[in-house]
Design a protein that fits this description.
The complex is a heterodimer. By secondary structure, chain A is mostly beta strands. In chain A, a hairpin with a 5-residue loop joins strand 4 and strand 5. Chain B is mainly beta. Classes of the chains: A mainly beta, B mainly beta. At the A-B interface, strand 4, strand 5 and strand 10 of A face strand 4, strand 5 and strand 10 of B.
Chain lengths: 111, 110
């Protein structure tokens, strides 16, 4: 099993450009999440989808949108990238909330 | 809001035992999890406590006291490969949301 797959692994954007981060899981998990990780700040929840067809804001949703395309896929979109969005982005999924499985991350730099 | 406090750094020698503490202030608390993250890697799940008491998984154990809003991760027989960051995380929203602490960097020395 691949687990949670994120694409791309690295990306450099110019301020104002848009992009979509893709995430797919093959574990039949109901819930999926997008986190960002900045140095010294741990992981902060951007958006989550508790089940297919639902999405909710997390701690830091401003500047982002999400789509739960189906049970497997959960994408994160930056409509107009800003330098403050330079970060490492992790997608995660869980069946029960007991243990989350994380993807390998997307390292995004906005210049 | 939700907040979790843990020490920023802990240093220990190979073969020793180390305890990483975590205190939390959350509403709708569901359970406490622990994750390990090596530099440049993804967080990986270590342990979960929904009820008070000790959970043991090999060299790692985790403890929770709901009345004290406190938990800890205990690592025994430390190995060099245990050098990593360790995060406690509180489950809320019926377990649908996970809020992370800022992490503890563990350095294991010879």
């Amino acid at each position: 099993n691949a687990g949670v797959t994120q694409t791309p692994k690295f990306q450099v954007l110019k301020t104002g450009q848009s992009m979509t981060l893709q995430c797919a899981q093959d574990m039949n998990h109901n819930s999926m999440y997008w986190y960002r990780q900045d140095p010294g700040m741990g992981l902060r929840l951007i958006y989550y989808s508790a089940s297919e067809g639902t999405t909710d804001k997390g701690e830091v949703p401003n500047g982002y949108n999400v789509s739960r395309l189906n049970k497997r896929e959960f994408s994160l979109r930056l409509e107009s990238a800003a330098p403050s969005q330079t970060s490492v982005y992790f997608c995660a999924s869980t069946a029960s909330g007991r243990g989350y499985t994380f993807g390998s991350g997307t390292r995004l730099t906005v210049v | 809001g939700q907040s979790l406090e843990q020490p920023s750094e802990v240093t220990a020698v190979e073969g020793a035992i180390v305890q990483i503490n975590c205190t939390y202030q959350t509403s709708g608390f569901y359970g406490l999890s622990w994750y390990q993250q090596h530099d440049g890697g993804a967080p990986t799940f270590l342990s979960y406590n929904a009820l008070d008491g000790l959970e043991e998984t090999g060299r790692f154990s985790s403890f929770l006291s709901r009345s004290d809003s406190y938990g800890y991760l205990l690592l025994q027989e430390l190995q060099m490969k245990d050098s990593a960051s360790y995060f406690c995380a509180a489950g809320t929203g019926g377990g649908n949301k996970l809020t992370f602490g800022t992490g503890t960097q563990l350095k294991v020395e010879l």
